[in-house]
Amino acid sequence: MTSEKSSDLNSQLNPQLNPQVSSRLTTHEPVMLNEIAQCFTTVPPGVVVDATFGLGGHAKAILKANPSIQILGLDQDADAIANAERMIADDASLRGRLTVRRVRFDSLNTVLEELSIKEISGALFDLGVSSPQLDIAERGFSYRNDGPLDMRMDQRSELSAADVVNNYQESELAGIITQNADERFARRIARAIVAARPISTTTHLAEVIVAAIPAPARRTGGHPAKRTFQAIRIEVNKELEILARTLQIAIDATKVGGRVAVLTYHSGENRIVKQVFRSSEKDADEIKIGSPYVHESQLGTRRVSRVRIAQYPSEQEQTQNRRAKSARLRVIEKDLVEARG
Q1: pLDDT tens, residue by residue, 222-238
Q2: Which DSSP category does 22 fall into?
Q3: What are the counts of helices (DSSP H) followed by strands (DSSP E) for the chain?
Q4: Which residues, including other chains, have CB under 8 Å from residue 260's CB and lie 6 or more apart?
Q5: Of 6, 159, 293, 309, which sits with the fewest C-beta atoms within 10 Å of its C-beta?
Q6: Cis amide leading into 44 (omega within 30)
């Protein structure tokens, strides 16, 4: 994208800045900021997709670290998009280098086609809930702050946490809590939730969850409601359902020398990322017929390689930033193989 084209895209595609919305946003500490910036310092010139833009901390660090790239930021949260518009308005250095779209990241393919972007220099996925979503009580993500049972990252979505908590069958709830959070007391918690219906607030739900867990287990592993809140949030936003296919789209779209980096925060996300990366390595020399980003003349010449061993935040960062404690960073890089004869 040229600077002129990027500026036009900003004016055409981004919603108008809403000061009332963006003023509610809080500052935050991006997890593994230096490691992420370093990851993209040597990627080829072009567009890096920040698929979970949030408050834009990672995006700004990447832009600073590599002046030859631009950022396409995706986020389904209206507050994040409003904040991005404020960033662009306040910082002239971002104009022409930052474009944002309000979409869920599984729309990546569609957005790239709309913007006529054939290849990308890389992509970043910082999974899970963002700090502002947790901090704003009325968003309903936090078990510590009293608010409505919402948990929708995109408030245009129909399904909310209240629907899951009050309408799902007990067996469905137990399955979700087990699958999305590895909660060993999932059945007890699901039974308690059904018995306590109707539940309308986050603090009420947290109280029900805590009471359902045996007293000895409450004293270890952080807040007893953390895993169940996580599981419900993942269900509301279908986070695990869309992750694998979107990662594959990003890998297919990445040019040689580009990288896809993923920050995960729990075992379910981590398993999916490992599976997708391993599959890409295993089928490294296979023709990617389904990819719209590989020209016919290039079929058989590209592969994915150099999957890095998972990195963890430093002990200092884990002490200073609570969200960093469970983070893992995985990176995969596009490489070349000999063309087939």
Answers
A1: 899 999 999 999 999 99
A2: H
A3: 16, 7
A4: 122, 123, 124, 125, 247, 250, 251, 254, 331, 332
A5: 309
A6: no
Strands 328-336 and 120-126: unpaired
Integer Cα distance of 227 and 229 in angstroms: 5
Collapsing DSSP states into helix, strand and coil, what is residue 195? Answer: helix
Euclidean distance between the first and the last CA atom of the chain, given in angstroms as a whole number: 34
| Angular region, 257: left φ>0, alpha ψ -120 to 50, beta rest | left
Indicate the length of the chain as a whole number: 341
Give residue 65's identity as a one-letter amino acid code.
Answer: A
Rg for the chain, CA atoms, rounded: 21
Q: What is the dihedral of CA 317, 123, 129, 96, to 10 degrees?
A: 100
Q: Where are the domains of the chain?
A: 3-132+239-336, 141-237
pLDDT tens, residue by residue, 58-96: 999 999 999 999 999 999 999 999 999 999 999 999 999
Whether 3-132+239-336 and 141-237 share one fold: the answer is no
Q: Does domain 141-237 have CATH number 1.10.150.170?
A: yes
User: Could you tell me the sign of the dihedral formed by the alpha carbons of 176, 177, 183, 185, in that order?
Assistant: negative
The architecture of the domain spanning 3-132+239-336 is 3-Layer(aba) Sandwich (3.40)
Residue whose entry in the numeric block shows the structure tokens 């980003």: 293
Distance between CA 97 and CA 92 in Å, rounded? 10
b/e map 282-295, b = 16+ CB within 10 Å: eeeeeebeebebbe
Integer Cα distance of 57 and 189 in angstroms: 36
Mean pLDDT across 151-169: 96
Q: Is 302 helix (H, G, I), strand (E, B) or coil?
A: strand
Name which of 14, 116, 26 is nearest 323 in CA terms: 26
What type of residue sits at position 94? L
For residue 301, pLDDT over 70 is answered with no
